[in-house]
Design the sequence.
């Protein structure tokens, strides 16, 4: 339905432009030659008035604030990003009428999602925010935007799942406790922005278009053989056959714990994939699972590295007849080999007892991380250690516990791999430092408060923010599973120290030193 503007064609021609206000909108009317245009007066970039803009040849209007240029006929941004809204104009007996009705919701959705794709491709965070806000204003849930981002970026992930997926479910959970609409939107944008960050400049790596009947053992064998195409085929087949996501996820969890895969990331990704599909719904399942399968088939089997090589021997020596009681103190200060041996001595104990002991030792390690290693400039590459080497012990423990609760026969793998974290990190701690100030007296209040900080974390790198949220949700989940755990105080204090200790995020001098050293030895 067209609305009278109260201005005639001749008056507009004389004035050149005029802003009218109708139904909460500011509409800019322009006369260019013998044509009339109506566009939104707020520039889609930062909202400054286009009525102050400059007309150029060819019915182009330039916003004077940052020089975006708009085609008045279509609204397209000839320079800049988002198009400006245009309104149909009609002349009735010399009077100007405009149609201010919103386009159909589906049309708005299409525009917002296309804009979101463009924003992701440009790694343009501000536009990602605008497009998700446009989607919501059109009546759609922002989860749709996250699903869209996951799907459109999937083929750009050369090695499949990244931390962007791993933290996505937690960001979506955080959004549910947002104190305002803006905070909720901020949380919803995080996984989209992280995916964009992770795919900057990435080429396309299509997934194999093959399908094989669901066969859990064949899927495990394909992943073991690092045969991505075959593994993809079985997952596609599983989805076509209607196999429940939980069953597919269970098999992938088994694959993840078969090796000390990607320093425990495979187990973390498996849990988080399942949580992400639960939050986004089944329409996301195929793409999210394909990414996970790709990451599992490409995962480094860390037990092949010299420092973890005794893992296979320990796994083979697992003997449930060994029933020595165990506590966290038994693991503190042990090397990888000694930690594996110590696990074997208690292999017959309840898995939970060993789990608590190992998690307690991991918490002690994190609380006592010697940050001099994080700042070092003259160390060997093997000693490039950061907070993230310590944080993964908790997120891996959380993921492996969930996997083992479904498949208890995997506990030996999970516990021995947790011992690898504990043994490896013991070389990078300072037991003498005073950590009393990090004690947490109100665990629930601490976690809740730290989660609230994430709505406005102020951290540039998604990888850093995503570890904070993953850690907080993992800690909350572990405490919910065992509120009086022996490690609870230690892990809360460790988390407190981790969250409030600056991290060195650029190692220019270290990189240069290591590069020179490497090239000198290269021959
Ligand atoms: S506000 Fe118009 S170009 Fe920036």
Sequence:
């Amino acid at each position: 339905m067209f609305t009278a503007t109260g201005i005639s064609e001749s008056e507009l021609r004389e004035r050149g432009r005029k802003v009218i206000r109708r139904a909460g909108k500011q509409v800019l009317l322009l006369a260019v030659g013998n044509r009339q245009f109506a566009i939104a007066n707020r520039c889609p970039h930062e909202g400054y008035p286009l009525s102050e803009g400059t007309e150029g040849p060819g019915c182009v209007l330039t916003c004077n604030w940052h020089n975006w240029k708009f085609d008045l006929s279509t609204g397209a941004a000839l320079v800049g990003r988002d198009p400006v809204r245009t309104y149909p104009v009609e002349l009735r007996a010399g009077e100007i009428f405009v149609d201010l009705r919103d386009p159909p919701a589906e049309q708005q959705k299409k525009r917002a999602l296309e804009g979101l794709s463009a924003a992701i491709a440009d790694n343009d965070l501000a536009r990602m925010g605008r497009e998700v806000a446009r989607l919501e204003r059109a009546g759609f849930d922002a989860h749709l935007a996250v699903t869209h981002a996951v799907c459109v970026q999937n083929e750009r992930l050369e090695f499949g799942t990244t931390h962007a997926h791993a933290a996505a479910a937690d960001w979506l959970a955080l959004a549910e406790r947002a104190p305002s609409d803006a905070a909720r939107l901020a949380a919803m944008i995080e996984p989209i922005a992280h995916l964009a960050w992770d795919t900057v400049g990435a080429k396309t790596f299509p997934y194999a278009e093959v399908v094989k009947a669901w066969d859990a053992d064949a899927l495990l064998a394909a992943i073991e053989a690092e045969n991505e195409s075959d593994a993809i085929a079985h997952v596609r087949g599983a989805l076509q056959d209607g196999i429940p996501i939980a069953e597919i996820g269970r098999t992938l969890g088994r694959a993840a714990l078969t090796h000390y895969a990607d320093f425990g990331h495979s187990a973390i990704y498996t849990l988080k994939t399942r949580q992400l599909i639960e939050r986004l719904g089944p329409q996301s399942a195929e793409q999210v699972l394909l990414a996970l399968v790709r990451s599992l088939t490409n995962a480094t089997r860390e037990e092949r590295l010299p420092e973890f090589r005794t893992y296979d021997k320990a796994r083979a020596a697992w003997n449930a007849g060994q029933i020595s009681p165990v506590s966290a103190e038994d693991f503190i200060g042990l090397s990888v080999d000694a930690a594996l041996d110590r696990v074997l001595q208690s292999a017959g104990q309840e898995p939970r007892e060993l789990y608590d002991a190992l998690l307690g030792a991991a918490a002690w390690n994190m609380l006592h991380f010697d940050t001099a290693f994080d700042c070092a400039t003259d160390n060997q590459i093997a000693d490039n250690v950061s907070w993230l080497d310590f944080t993964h012990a908790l997120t891996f423990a959380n993921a492996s516990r969930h996997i083992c609760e479904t498949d208890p026969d995997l506990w030996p793998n999970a516990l021995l791999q947790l011992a690898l974290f504990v043994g490896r990190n013991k070389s990078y701690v300072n037991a003498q430092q005073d950590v009393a100030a990090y004690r947490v007296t109100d665990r629930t209040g601490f976690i809740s408060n730290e989660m609230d900080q994430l709505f406005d974390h102020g951290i540039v790198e998604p990888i850093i923010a995503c570890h904070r949220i993953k850690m907080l949700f993992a800690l909350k989940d572990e405490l919910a599973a065992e509120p009086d755990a022996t490690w609870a105080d230690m892990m809360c204090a460790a988390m407190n120290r981790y969250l409030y200790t600056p991290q060195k995020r650029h190692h220019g001098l270290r990189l240069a030193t290591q590069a020179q050293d490497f090239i000198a030895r290269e021959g």
Notes: The chain is about 55% helix and 10% strand. The pocket of FE2/S2 (inorganic) cluster is lined by residues 43, 45-46, 48, 63, 65-66, 68, 80 (CB under 6 Å).
